[in-house]
Design goal:
The chain has 377 residues and is of the alpha+beta class. The chain folds into 2 domains: 250 residues, DD-peptidase/beta-lactamase superfamily (Beta-lactamase), CATH 3.40.710; 103 residues, no CATH class. It is built from 11 helices and 12 strands. It has a 7-stranded antiparallel beta sheet, with helices on both faces. The protein has a 3-stranded antiparallel beta sheet with strand order 4-6-5. A hairpin with a 2-residue loop joins strand 2 and strand 3. It is globular. The relative contact order is 0.19.
Length: 377
């Protein structure tokens, strides 16, 4: 296996840890992957290797894109925060003030903050829903507007795995008149961050084939609380669908961001630097502080641990992003993640195409974060 790219002096152990992932066998065997790390606003690790397809005929490139699942959610959080920055919305504002139809079924008092911190009581769909429905934005938004919460908003957390993106995206659309993907491009374009929600067909040649887990975790749905069942099974996600043009083209702001490791890391580096990188302001310091403040400090029903949700980002109490519990970001199903550490001013982007079996706890990414922090001391 040839590992391409570079590391700054002193960070050679990070290259070794990245290469070691390609020596794994079994469920966490690496096929293709990339890692990028910023420190103090400078790129200090830029590595890639392996293959972008199951046939191992296409080498992974520096700019290979891949569907990063819920690692998308940090970008979605920033798009909403930019609306706060512009004075179009406020986190403590009822959603129904921006999206009047949302007031149905007892939701008139549900706030934007409760939506963004997975406390809104809408963790999945009650009405039977299939993945094809996700391509009809108005249908899904109307379905969520009409649905009653399955728990009292603000009293519990249950990860809104797919619904988060539609809820956040409709708030952005009502506030700006534009889609969330378009609002995000106002950031990623000037910043030069290779991160997309709604991927043009012109970029398809750069996209890695996503490979499902060899032995996906088996979840006993009948033994789980209703909010968790809805979040996991209505509809059930299908990794094979990710490799279609329809999926890539859609805007699914909880699920289908396409990014390179460089793109994720650069985006998170702007956050780690206080909201501005290389003269491009992503968020003002005040709104960044609002977005990253802990809004919910309890265990999440679906995840099974306390993510200390902010406004769309999770904190690092379980130590998957290094040693600092105040590091924040988001991981994606199968192993990808992007995170920002505002204390050490470190940002990490890791992407891969062979999904691990678990929703949380992939050892490949944690090992890389541990190697980064061990190397920088």
């Amino acid at each position: 296996m040839t590992i391409h790219g570079s590391v700054a002096p002193g960070l050679e152990p990070v290259r070794e840890a990245f290469a070691a992932n390609f020596e794994r066998t079994g469920d966490y065997a690496e096929v293709g992957a990339a890692l990028c790390v910023y420190r103090h606003g400078e790129k200090v690790v830029d590595l890639w290797g392996g293959h972008a397809d199951a046939a191992r005929a296409r080498p992974w490139q520096a700019d290979t894109l891949v569907n990063v699942w819920s690692s998308t959610k940090t970008a979605t959080a920033v798009a909403v925060a930019r609306c706060v920055d512009a004075g179009l919305i406020a986190y403590d504002q009822p959603v129904a003030e921006v999206w009047p139809e949302f007031a149905q079924a007892g939701k008139s008092a549900v706030t934007i903050a409760q939506v963004m911190s997975h406390q809104a009581g809408l963790p999945g769909f009650v009405e039977p829903t299939i993945l094809d429905d996700f391509y009809d934005w108005d249908l899904v938004a109307a379905r969520l507007a009409a649905q009653a919460p399955v728990f009292e908003p603000g009293t519990l957390n249950s990860y809104h795995a797919a619904t988060y993106g539609f809820l956040a995206g409709e708030i952005v659309r009502r506030a700006t008149g534009r889609t969330l993907g378009a609002v995000l491009r106002d950031v990623t374009g000037p910043l030069g961050a290779d991160l997309h929600i709604g991927l043009p067909a012109s970029e398809d040649d750069r996209v890695a084939e996503l490979l499902p887990a060899d032995h996906p975790a088996v979840v006993p749905l009948d033994q789980l609380p209703l909010p968790v069942r809805l979040g996991l099974s209505n509809p059930e996600q299908d990794p094979a669908r990710v490799n279609t043009r329809a999926w890539r083209a859609a805007e699914l702001p909880a699920l289908n961001g396409h990014a390179s490791a460089r793109g994720l890391a650069r985006f998170c580096a702007a956050l780690a630097e206080g909201g501005t990188l290389d003269g491009v302001e992503v968020l003002s310091p005040g709104v960044l502080a609002q977005m990253t403040a802990v809004a919910a400090d309890r265990d999440d029903l679906l995840l099974g641990f306390n993510p200390q949700w902010g406004m769309g980002v999770a904190h690092n109490l379980i130590g998957v992003y290094g040693p600092n519990p105040r590091t924040y970001g988001h991981s994606g199903w199968g192993g990808s993640y992007g995170c920002a550490d505002p204390n050490a001013r470190v940002a990490i982007g890791y992407v891969l195409n062979h999904m691990g079996p678990e929703l949380v706890g992939d050892p490949r990414g944690k090992g890389l974060a541990d190697a980064v922090y061990a190397a920088i001391g």
